[in-house]
Amino acid sequence: MARLLIVDDERAIVDTLVRVLERDGHTVAGMTDAARVLDVDLSRFDLIVTDVMMPGMDGFELVRRIRERADCPILFLTAKTEEGDAVMGLGLGADDYIRKPCGAAELRAKVTAHLRREGRERHSSLEFGRVRIDLTAKRAEVDGAPVRLTPTEYALCEHLARRRGQVFSKEALLEEASGWDSTASAETITAHVSSIRSKFKAHGVNPIGTVWGMGYRWEL
Questions:
Q1: Which residues carry this modification: 4-aspartylphosphate (predicted)?
Q2: Residue that finishes a domain, picked among 65, 91, 119
Q3: Most buried residue among 50, 67, 119, 205 by CB atoms closer than 10 A?
Q4: Alpha-carbon dihedral of residues 171, 174, 175, 177, nearest 10 degrees?
Q5: Is the pTM of this model over 0.70?
């Protein structure tokens, strides 16, 4: 089973989420002070769930500061309902979000979906000129230099790259990214693709093309 970290300023919520996720056999740690997360060895965790609205350091700032060190899916737990807030969070490096209040079944399904995606067996690599997708290390490279993608961004790149030239709608890519139908909007895929393009652009390439009115495809 997986090692999970829950971050929320309300102890009652942390304790409830810990109990719910431990029922699935996971080892779950809970923290109520987001600032303390900065001192934690995040490589120990397979998935992180963090609240957004917290005093001192909010979830957006926390994810911005730990994304480079946390090589695992990060899920926002948020009472904020504006779509723009969710898109902003995804752009900062989160992989998904769950709206408060959420049921135990929804939380467990989200966590299970992301852990399952992370655990898929991968082999070898895909080569596209200057771009290499390392399927074993779950990493994208340009001329040997790593492109620092979030787990969800990498998953979307791998999905598209494996089916080079095939067009996928935002809805189809959302299902691939989230693992199941949720309250998330397909527009969150726009944020992910924008972030992916920005990171590849820094290396002088743009692997994902837009087919207007239809979706996206891998074009290298």
A1: 51
A2: 119
A3: 50
A4: 160
A5: no
Give the domain extent around 88: 3-119
Res 180 pLDDT > 60: no
User: How many other C-beta atoms lie within 10 A of the C-beta of residue 194?
Assistant: 14
pLDDT at 78 > cutoff 50: yes
Whether 200 contacts 183, CB under 8 Å: no
Tokens of 26: 């996971």
Q: Can you give the CATH number for the domain in which 159 is found?
A: 1.10.10.10
DSSP tally for the chain: helices H, then strands E: 8, 11
What pLDDT was estimated at residue 38? 92
Weakest mean pLDDT among 166-170, 187-191, 202-206, 215-219? 187-191
Torsion of CA 135, 115, 216, 205, to 10 degrees: -40
Among the listed ranges 93-97, 155-159, 181-185, which one has the minimum average pLDDT value? 181-185
Question: Is the distance from CB of 8 to CB of 17 less than 8 angstroms?
Answer: yes
80 in the same domain as 7? yes
Q: Which of 86, 119, 152 is the last residue of a domain?
A: 119
Local structure of residue 40 (DSSP, 8 states): S
Confidence at residue 28, expressed as pLDDT on a 0 to 100 scale: 95
The total domain count for the chain is 2
Q: Contact, 75 vs 98, CB < 8 A?
A: yes
**CATH classification at residue 86:** 3.40.50.2300
